Amino acid sequence: MIAFHYPPEASSSGVLRTLKYSTYLAEYDWQVTVLSIDKNAYTVVDEKLTQQIPDAVQVVRTPYLNSQQHFAIKGHYPSFLAIPDRWMGWQFWAVAQGKKIIPQKQIDLIYSTSPHATAHVIASKLQAWSQLPWVMDFRDPWYEESPELGTPWLVQCFAKYLEKKYIQQAKAVVSSTHDLQQLFIKRYPDLPQDKFISIMNGYDDADFQALPDMPWKKKSQLILLHAGSINTEFRDPRPLFKAVKQAIDRHRIGIEQIKVQFLGINQPAKVFQQAVEQLSLETVVEFLPRVAYQQSLEYLLQADVLLLLQFSDDTQSLVPAKLYEYLRAKRPVWALIYPGAISDVMTQTQGGWWVNPDDSDALAQQLQTIIQSWQQQTLSQYTANQQLKNFDRRVLSKKLATVFDHLTNQVP
Questions:
Q1: Which CATH number fits domain 14-202+392-407: 3.40.50.2000, 2.40.50.140, 3.10.20.90, 3.40.50.410?
Q2: pTM for the whole thing?
Q3: What is the mean pLDDT of residues 159-185?
């Protein structure tokens, strides 16, 4: 497994996808060796996550070059040093190390996951050298047809070229959502459709079994909790702030009866702090610092409703891993999203509500529904149904193991 994000790295929920695969694949007769980057590359770490790595999993880390860190002059560096990303310098050590691991461990298959796409560059070179089957895993798209503002033209062009080249080279392409799978099928109509597989993100029941029992009970405040980062691009809480302010002004709920918490925000952006002050919500909105992963799950259980913010055209095909953890926490989810992959999961699991945040009337109406359910103590009626079990990490690991089995001819 070639992965940039692996414990103790903790800036991305994508670390859990690879961690849980490496944990549960052994139950399906696959022994895992992880090839990753030196820990010094990580800006956010959670050392407790490393305790979840099984003893049977060997983690091999290599030196690297970071274009932004090692080649920038006054914060700028040539765009060709970001092809496919600023971690391109990792490949020199990783490929050399991979060529040692493959014969030593008698490796049968190569798996790489992105972001960051440099992992796929490493896998491509090791596949060409070893001729082993290669599985590419996409947690996010490599590139967008409409590139993000500020994406260098050269980087975008090479992203298109390299993605096509590597997808043709790989034996299977796994996506974290059905929407992303369909995007690849449409993008590469000349390739067999069964080459593209979707294996969703999920939750690990073991993480929740280890938590203290926190039975549902009505508190003096309705607590809405968002875990993770916020931004002005696609996780903007300001529509929510306005809806909360409106509910208070219309006496739907007392200002002392509602609390909106943002977990993992050590210092909110000035624009969000200003919005809170302009709406006089200083006693309602609370920004909480980042905590260890296991402690973050405890916060989920202490809330009444869990908030999901993800609305932009280029995120409609994506489902953050935290949605499944929200649902497993047995708390209703309120998702401010555009219709897409997330709304599909919400519809399937019936685990709460979703609304287009551009529709202020619908947003206000849903908040009123939530407030009334809290007052009537009926929020538990909106927790996820039995369909949630389809997203258990053990189930998902079995699906990936089945892909591996077929590619190595271990099954008919």
A1: 3.40.50.2000
A2: 0.91
A3: 95
